[in-house]
Specification:
Layout: H1 8-18, E1 25-28, E2 33-35, H2 36-52, E3 60-64, H3 70-81, E4 84-87, H4 94-104, E5 108-112, H5 113-116, H6 120-125, E6 131-135, E7 149-151, H7 152-157, E8 173-179, E9 187-192, H8 193-207, E10 215-218, H9 225-237, E11 241-243, H10 251-261, E12 265-268, H11 270-277, E13 293-296, H12 303-313, E14 317-322, E15 329-332, E16 345-346, E17 351-355, E18 368-373, E19 380-381, H13 385-391, E20 392-393, E21 396-405, E22 411-416, E23 421-423, E24 426-428, H14 430-438, E25 443-452, E26 458-466, H15 474-488, E27 496-499, H16 513-520
Parallel strand pairs: 1-11, 3-4, 3-5, 5-6, 6-7, 10-11, 10-12, 12-13, 13-14, 26-27
Antiparallel strand pairs: 1-2, 8-9, 9-19, 14-15, 15-16, 17-18, 18-21, 20-21, 21-22, 23-24, 25-26
Helix pairs in contact: 1-2, 2-3, 8-9, 10-11, 11-12, 14-15
Bound molecules: 2-methylbenzoic acid.
């Protein structure tokens, strides 16, 4: 028989209302808040309005939405109706949005008002688009909207409520997330309803010990798999509350939110933690007296950042890694098993292997590629058969990350598989050299790539962002080289050091070393 009770909206949302928790706050943004009951109502109206507009099951809805309470209404409302939401990065260029609209064949676009202006031409040219909903107009006159575009709030309010989520199998595709690798066009990773619950019942429950009284603030945005779990799936899984900030998460803005909202769990990325540590505004609890736990992902957290944070702020950072393909974190430190400088151990429910280029398991202490097996793997990439076959190997998923498993079972990150390079025949992990550079008090961020010297031999080159007020001079740059020699090994020191204003990064804070390599020619 076909399993039909697996729509994630029933479990994440309607369950709380049915069990008497409807009055609890689900989401707080700077201007509005939504209880579980209000969210159930608004998402049901949105679902009804989509169906009334003729948007059928399995059709895609691209979401270019800032983190406000409209995001969960749209995301959960679409899934309630069986429409597939596809949240994308709000900082994409119009060309990138045009690609995703065409690739996904989206029939609906939900877009926050501040992101809309740049997209008028793209929207007009999108081949399959039938409905454009602009959120956050705040009652502004709608005369500026082009034909076919409608006010999101008005659309929701006028919707006939669809009280129950459409029956769905837990194995049915619920939403997509685009994954951008170091090369090629972004790929739509198709995620099923059951995966949302799986990440909540593994990482959020076992590692974070999330509970109803938690208030979660994720500086990582909801369009990113990491932020979606942190600020939507995990708090909703226990009837807790999430704080949303639509603005850019600058260190001072984040510290302001911590002070004003007093979260119990904070979710950041390594660059933000390092930048917050450089801010004079940072103090005990990072502003929140109730803070009990911080988490980090996106890139490996340098050891000294974790240690310093704990010293200054008084709360641990649990570093972990996940992927868009696995939906959330599958390898993590835990409150009771924490070693800074490592990614920790497998999250209960997930298995890990480190393999060589022939997919043979390597010995402890040897570098190889990390493979993961677990309940939240994507079903595959949309319309990308070859890439799907290379990444999803039956029950196992390639991560593209190089790791070493230490003798006592902790996993230590060595860099992206395609960022590693050899110097004099010996593998160099950019991450290890970067971690050594970051121990220098003048360095805020570092990225290392392999570069050919005049003899065509590859050597490390470092790009550095210095702390505010530090001037780059020859002595300082020489000191950087000595730091690496002393901490990482003589052959690994950067033969070239360039100071830059900022490093190229993905929306999730991962350094794009391939861009630095490309700029070298
Ligand atoms: O980059 C990560 O570590 C990550 C973590 C959780 C979810 C998604 C991603 C990419």
């Amino acid at each position: 028989s076909v399993t039909q009770d697996g729509n994630a909206v029933s479990w994440l949302l309607d369950r709380h209302v049915a069990e008497g928790r409807g009055a609890r706050a689900a989401f707080l943004d700077p201007h509005r808040s939504l209880t579980y009951a209000a969210l159930a109502e608004a998402s049901a109206r949105f679902a009804g309005a989509l169906s009334a507009a003729g948007i059928g099951r399995e059709r895609r809805m691209l979401m270019l939405m800032l983190d406000t309470v409209d995001f969960p209404v749209a995301f959960l409302g679409a899934m309630r109706a069986g429409v597939v939401p596809v949240p994308v990065n709000t900082l994409l260029t119009p060309e990138q949005v045009a690609y995703m609209l065409a690739d996904s064949r989206a029939e609906v676009l939900c877009v926050s008002a501040p992101c809309f202006a740049a997209l008028r031409d793209v929207v007009a040219a999108a081949p399959d688009l039938r409905l454009v909903l602009v959120a956050g107009l705040d009652g502004a006159p709608q005369t500026g909207l082009p034909a076919g575009a409608r006010d999101f709030a008005g659309f929701v309010a006028a919707g006939p409520a669809a009280p129950r989520p459409v029956p769905a199998s837990p194995d049915e595709v619920a939403f997509w997330l685009y994954s951008s690798g170091s090369t090629g066009a972004p790929k739509g990773a198709k995620h099923v309803h059951g995966s949302l619950r799986a990440t909540a019942e593994t990482y959020a429950s076992d590692v974070l010990g999330i509970r109803a009284g938690d208030l979660v603030y994720s500086a990582a945005k909801l369009f990113f798999a990491y932020g979606l779990g942190n600020a939507l799936t995990f708090p909703m899984s226990v009837g807790a509350t999430a704080v949303l900030l639509p603005d850019r998460p600058t260190p001072d803005a984040v510290i302001g939110v911590m002070r004003d909202r007093q979260p119990t769990i904070f979710c950041g990325v390594p660059t933000l933690y390092a930048a917050m540590l450089a801010s004079p505004a940072l103090g005990r609890g990072a502003g929140s007296e109730r803070l009990r736990l911080c988490i980090s992902a996106g890139e490996a957290l340098p050891e000294h950042v974790g240690l310093r944070w704990e010293e200054v702020v008084g709360a641990a950072i649990l570093d972990g890694i996940g992927s868009t393909e696995m939906l959330h974190i599958f390898l993590s430190n835990r409150p009771d098993l924490l070693r800074y400088g490592t990614s920790g151990v497998a999250v209960p429910g997930y298995e890990l292997r480190i393999v060589d280029e022939h997919e043979r398991e390597v010995a402890p202490g040897e570098i190889g590629e990390l493979l993961v097996r677990g309940p939240s793997a994507a079903e595959g990439y949309w319309n990308q058969r070859e890439k799907s076959r290379r990444t999803f190997l039956g029950e196992w998923t390639r991560t593209g990350d190089k790791y070493v498993r230490e003798a006592d079972g902790f996993y230590r990150y060595q860099g992206r598989a395609d960022d590693m390079f050899k110097v004099s025949g010996i593998w160099v992990s950019p991450f290890e050299v970067e971690a050594a550079l970051m121990t220098h008090p003048a360095v805020q961020e570092a990225a290392v790539v392999g570069r050919e010297d005049a003899d065509g031999l590859v050597k490390p080159m470092a790009f550095l962002v210095l702390k505010p007020g530090v001037a780059a001079d020859t002595a300082l740059l020489e000191a950087m080289k000595e730091t690496v020699k002393a901490r990482a090994g003589a052959w690994k020191y950067p033969r070239w050091v360039e100071v830059v204003e900022e490093l190229p990064k993905t929306a999730t804070g991962k350094i794009q070393r391939f861009r630095l390599r490309a700029a070298l020619g």
